[in-house]
Amino acid sequence: MLPYIIIIILLAVALVVSSVLLYLYSKKKYQAGINEGEQKTEDKYVQLGKDADKIISDAEEAGKKKQESLVMEAKQEIASLRKTYDEEVREKKQELQDESKKLERREESLDNRSNNLDKRENNLEAKEQKMEQRLADIEKRNEKVEELISEQEKKLMEICGYSQEQAQEIVLKRVEDELHMEIATFVKDETEKAKSEANRKAQVILANAIQQYANETIQEKTVSVVLLPNDEMKGRIIGREGRNIRAIEAVTGVDLIIDDTPDSVVISCFDPIRREIARRTLEILISDGRIQPPRIEEVFQKCTKEIENEMREEGEKAVFEVGIGKVHPELVKLIGKMYFRTSYGQNVLAHSKEVAFLAGKMAAEIGEDEILARRAGLLHDIGKATDHEQEGSHVEIGVEIATKFREDPTVIDAIASHHGDVDATTVIAHLVAAADTLSAARPGARSESLDNYIKRLEALEAVANEFKGVDKTYALQAGREVRIIVKPEAITDAEAYSLARNIKNKIEQTMNYPGTIKVTVIREVRVQEVAH
Fold first, then answer.
1. Among residues 446, 442, 473, which one has the least CA distance to residue 457?
2. Is residue 200 within a helix (H) or strand (E), and if so which, with residue range?
3. For residue 339, what pLDDT is reported?
4. How far apart are CA 507 and CA 502, in angstroms?
5. Please, are residues 481 and 517 in contact by the beta-carbon 8 Å criterion?
6. pLDDT band for position 196 (50/70/90)?
7. What is the DSSP-derived secondary structure letter of residue 270?
8. Can you give the pTM of this predicted structure?
9. Which of 92, 222, 400, 499 is 20 to 30 Å from 232 at the Cα level?
């Protein structure tokens, strides 16, 4: 507020000083005019004096008015500032009063809390004293209880005649026996539950795999018969003094059977590739009509190249369909050879592809490597491509081929164990064995001659009829099941279980069969009376 007052006063002093200076300046100018206008008239001098007085009076009057105005404004400003200052002071006082009241309330609250804490401390001290007293009483009671227990133990030992260690051993042994029984019961229940769950899951996995690969049954005949346009063609095939037939058999490596069967020639050879080449060669020669040794060799060479190309193409096609990635070219050729190989009327390559898909589906269901399972499934019968060319079973030959081409150990394990010759060491090997059984052993998948079929059923019934107490035996479902009806007076219910197991063991030991055979023993008692 003081700076404003000082400024106003300074402005008023400056106004007065400027008026005085203006007056002095006017007076000086007037004096100069007098000095310079000594020659002018006295009237002009008088007029100038009047004007100067008037100017001076006007300036003084204006200075007074300006001074009064500034003083008034300064007073108003001072009053406004004072009012504002008073309001601020009043607000500050009110805030200080409020803070003071809050502090007073807080002090009261703290005083109350302090009083409460004092009361709680007193209560806690009293409770601690009571607890100490109770603990002392409990210790005394415990001492009495221990004394009583020791006295009772002494009396019990005197009554039963056992020491404390012997009694503990007896109790522990009894508890141990009870725990053993409970553990055995628990293990049995859990084992049965696990078996049931495993069987259920296995059935679901197999059902899903079969459903996802519902391929039609593959059956092919292994008899190679070439049809002739007429019986005169037989003489041309034989040739003069048997020259043509000897040339055909020498070049192709097969045996031609020309008998009384009308309009047909039978080709006999253990090698399916040679038999197929001979069949095509003979068909071309018959259609061409030129049957002579040079022509026979020429057509044979052509058919051999065609078969080799077909084997490679079939192998590549199978690898592509199964989706197993890169395969050695020689191994591809062996896979293609399986296209011309049959087993019980079932095409080996089609069977191998089916096993690959089934094993892959089951592997995917249980989280195993699907591609590796397919590879093992496709190659599990690779030995059948060359088993007619070298000694040994197709399993041994397959293991040798897979090892030669550095296949995965899991694939080799699946080849070696898919017929149970060795124990499988991998999960995929078990899957391949299961898929092989599904593909080959299901009813209708493979065919056999009528004579062999009848002989196998008769042998199956004969095995069961050897046992004592058997009344009748029936082979069902193409030899997949055998039902034995026993004499109830000779076999008891308990002995029926043993008979079924003995017949099962006898079948496994004496018979060769694909898949499984179900043995069912039926014991039935019928009592009849006739009322008259």
1. 473
2. helix 164-212
3. 86
4. 9
5. yes
6. low
7. S
8. 0.47
9. 222
